[in-house]
Amino acid sequence: MEALTFPRYSPDDIINYLRSHVLTGAEARNLVKGDVFGSPKLEVLHMIYMRILQKVYGIRLEHFYMMPVNVDIMYPQIFEGFLPVCNLYIHMERLLPVCRINDFQIADVLNPKTKRTARFLSGILNFVNFREFRREVYLELQLNYKSAMEKHQQLETANREAALKLEKLNTVPVEHQAEVKQLTDNIRELEQLLRQDYRRKQTALQEVISQKKSDIAESTRKLNELKVTMATLKEEQEQLKSKIVESPEELKNYKELMKETVKKLKKSKQEVIEKYEGYRDLVEVLPSCQLEVQLYQKKMERQGANVERLASVLAEVRNLEDQLESAQIELKKGKTDEMSLKRLVTAKHEKLSTAEIRIKKKREDVEQYKQTVFEYCNRVQEKRGAVYDKVTAIHKEIQQTRFKIQQLNENAEKEEMKAKEIYLNLKAGLEKRHDSLIKTAKSYAASREDKMAELKKGLLRV
Hints:
Layout: H1 11-22, H2 26-30, H3 33-36, H4 42-57, H5 83-95, H6 107-110, H7 114-170, H8 177-242, H9 248-285, H10 287-461
Helix pairs in contact: 1-7, 4-5, 8-9
C-alpha cells in the first residue's frame, strides 16, 4: 500500500481543509487537531466521515439510523445502538475503494489509529478535491448536453414536419394520376425527339466545321503564297529600278506588265478579302463547337500521356536489353566458374571417398557400442521387474487404505445425520423459546402500558 496514487497531507493541512470545505458553523470552529490525531475522539471522527459521505453521495443523517429493509432481523431493538456505526462502515467501505484505499476495516471506525486515519483522510480529501474540480466540467457538459438534446428534439420535430410535407407533395392524388402519367409520357417523347434533332444538327455542324477548316487552311496557304510573290515582286522591282534603261519603249512595256500584275494582285486580294469575310461569319458560329474541340484537345492530351508512357516503356525495354547483355556476360563468367567448380567437385569426391572409409570404421565402432548398450538395457529390464513387483504391493496397500477411507466417510455421514437431527430438535426448542419470549414481551408491554396509565392517573390526581 506504499505506492499510492495520492499525496500524504500533514495533520494541519487536513484540519484546515476540513474546516474550510467539509464542516460548517460550530463544527468547523470547534474542530481541534487533538480531536482527530493523537487520541482521536470517535464522535468527531464519525461526524467527519458522515459529513464527507453527505457531501459525496448526498446521504441524509437519518439514513445512518435506519434498519436495512432487505435483511430479516428477529430482534431489531438489539441493533439500535450499533446501527449508525454499522451503516457508517458500509458507506465508507463503498467510498474508500474509489479513493484507492482497499484495506479499510471495522476496527478503523471503532478503534482508529492515527497513521491509518491520516492516510484515509488524505485519500478522501484528494478525491473530494478532484471531484470538485471535475464537477464544474461535468456540469458544463450536462448543460451543453441538455441544450443539444433540446435542439435535437426541435430539429427532429422540424424534420418530421418537413417529411410529412414532402410526402404530401410527392404523393399524387388519384384524380390527377392519369394526367401525370400522360404528361410524363409526353415529356419522354419530347426528350427523345430533342436528342435526335440535337444529334442530327451536331453531325451537320461537325461536317460544316471540318469543311470550313479545310477552306481556311487552303486560303491561308494561298495568302502565304501571295505574300511570298509580293515580296519577290518588290525585290524584282528594286532590282529593275537600278537597271532601268532610258529607252521609252522598254519602259512602257515594263509599266504595262507591272499594271497587269498589279491588277491580278488586286483581284486575288479582293477574292481573299471576300473569302475572309465569309470565314469571319462562319467563325461566329464556331463558339458552340469549341466544346467539342476542347474534348478533342483532352483526347490529344491523353494521347500525349500515352505517348509518354510508351516512351517510358521503351526506356525500360532498353534498360532490360542492357540488363540482358550484362546477364549474358555474367552467364559467360558463370560458365567459367562452373568449369572451376567441376574441378573442385572432383577433388571433393576424392575427399568424400576417404570420408566414407572413415565412416565405415566409425559404424563398426557404433555397432559394438550398441551391443554393450543392449546388454545394459537387459540388466535394467530385470531391475524394472523387481520394481514393478514393489509397485503392485504398494497399489494393494493404497486400495486397502481407500476402503478404510470409505468406511470412515460412511461413519461420518451417519454422525452427520445424527447431528442434523440434534440441530432440528434444538431449532424447534429455540422456536418455542422465541414464541414464549415474544409472549412475555407482549405481556410485559401490556403491563407497562397499564402501569403507565396508572401513573398518569396518579399524576392527574396530584
